[in-house]
Design a protein that fits this description.
alpha+beta, six-stranded antiparallel beta sheet, 27 strands, 426 residues
Length: 426
């Protein structure tokens, strides 16, 4: 084999027995391996890069043919990281050879080794060439092993683990005093960067989430890397009660339009449609919602449906705020939080629907929202969550539960935000 003496053997593990020994090459930080069709299709496999910076695990029947798997360093100089983030691992690009490259029908798992101690919660990102931006992935951190893992649906992607830059300024109280009396039953104000709690009121009481549940639905949909360009056909089984998108069985709209209907207009039936097209069964999807809460260390967050109509979707204000702080950096969530309305064209007939943002604070001077969600069922009263920053960039996560009126939750949120920004300095 030409040049063999110049190469060192990388580590390879195959799930199950290999019918033939794979050929592996590794030179410095470059790893290449050929796996036959039986291994790729029937056995599944795990490949480690030569320097152990990346571990790529692919289950059986994701691919239909054999091929090469290549890993090598990625230079991010031309694709800078998002502001406020620094690299916590090497940047690596992987490529799983396919005759016709396409989005995978099942998730693969990428593990990355941290190259420095993490001070907060490391997040894996992949570079989206179509959007020319690094996008966050649902991340699990094995702290003792120094490894971070995330699911992906791409046969080819640059990936890296990033960590938030340690803020040089943390909220420091400059003025005594407490907020005005709240209408809401429980509330919390958290600094988005550090997680410091600036104010709390019965923040550990477990309470029905109502439509705030949809933020976990959104998070799991992003984990599944659904195709937002896909056109869906609405069916009767998606229909439900409460706030809905007014369409008929047989109507065709995109996944993106259902996403915006769910988050902008809080459409319960759109949540059902999104789950149906997620690649998971409804039971498996709800299980993934609860598994994510558990993985984030939030034992009181619990879900039984994707839209929040049941009063058994519950959590505390503290845990829900922590969930929002850790999971809402994706640009697609920010888009839904910042538009006053979204127009949905129907694909099967000349008609359109308009959903309007349920956040009545949107557009208020001095408040820039990066995530927001309203919720109401009889058992919960009026709930609201906001991730919001002032013109100085001081970002808060505010959660209020159980206001007796719709306006009360917005008044409480506005007062809490202004109180925090006037009583603390960053």
């Amino acid at each position: 084999m030409i040049g063999l003496k110049k190469w060192k053997i990388g580590m390879v593990a195959a799930v199950g027995l290999l019918l033939s020994t794979p050929t592996v090459f590794a030179m410095e930080n470059f790893t290449a391996i050929y796996l036959d069709a039986m291994t790729m299709v029937e056995r599944g496999f795990t490949v480690r890069s030569a320097d152990d910076a990346m571990i790529l695990s692919i289950p059986p029947r994701v691919f239909t043919e054999g091929g090469h798997v290549v890993m090598h360093p990625y230079d991010p100089a031309s694709t800078p990281f998002p502001g406020g983030w620094i690299a916590a691992s090497d940047a690596v690009i992987y490529n799983i050879e396919m005759a016709q490259p396409r989005m995978l029908q099942a998730l693969i798992t990428v593990q990355m080794r941290l190259t420095q101690a993490s001070h907060t919660a490391p997040q894996m990102f992949f570079y989206d060439f179509s959007k020319k931006a690094w996008q966050p992935l649902s991340t699990r951190w094995n702290k003792p092993a120094g490894m971070v893992s995330a699911p992906l649906r791409f046969p080819y992607a640059p990936v890296v683990v990033l960590d938030r830059m340690q803020s040089q300024t943390v909220p420091t109280r400059i003025t005594e005093g407490i907020p005005t009396v709240l209408a809401s039953r429980s509330a919390i104000v958290m600094d988005a960067a550090s997680g410091n709690v600036l104010f709390e009121q019965q923040a550990d009481e477990v309470w029905p989430l109502a439509s705030l549940t949809k933020m976990m639905t959104a998070s799991v949909l992003l984990d599944q890397q659904v195709d937002f360009k896909k056109t869906t056909t609405y069916v009767q089984e998606d229909q439900t009660t409460g706030g809905i998108l007014h369409i008929l069985p047989g109507d065709q709209i995109t996944m993106w339009d259902h996403w915006m209907a769910m988050l902008v207009g809080s459409a319960n039936n759109s949540a059902n449609t999104l789950v149906r097209f997620s690649g998971l069964s409804r039971i498996a999807f709800i299980a993934a919602m609860n598994q994510k809460a558990s993985a984030l260390g939030l034992p009181h967050l619990s879900f039984v449906d994707p839209h929040g109509l049941s009063d058994r979707n519950v959590g505390s204000a503290r845990e829900y705020a922590e969930f929002i702080r850790k999971t809402t950096g994706d640009v697609r969530i920010i888009q839904a939080a910042t538009v006053p309305q979204h127009v949905i064209p129907l694909r099967n007939r000349v008609h359109e629907r308009t959903v309007r943002n349920t956040n009545k604070l949107l557009g208020r001077a001095g408040m820039e929202f990066t995530a927001a969600k309203t919720g109401y069922i009889d058992e919960s009263g009026y709930n609201f969550m906001a991730r919001v920053k002032n013109p100085k960039g001081n970002e808060l996560v505010i959660v209020v539960f159980g206001s007796p009126t719709a306006q009360g939750r917005f008044t409480d949120t506005k007062n809490l935000a202004n109180w925090a920004w006037s009583h603390f300095t960053w």
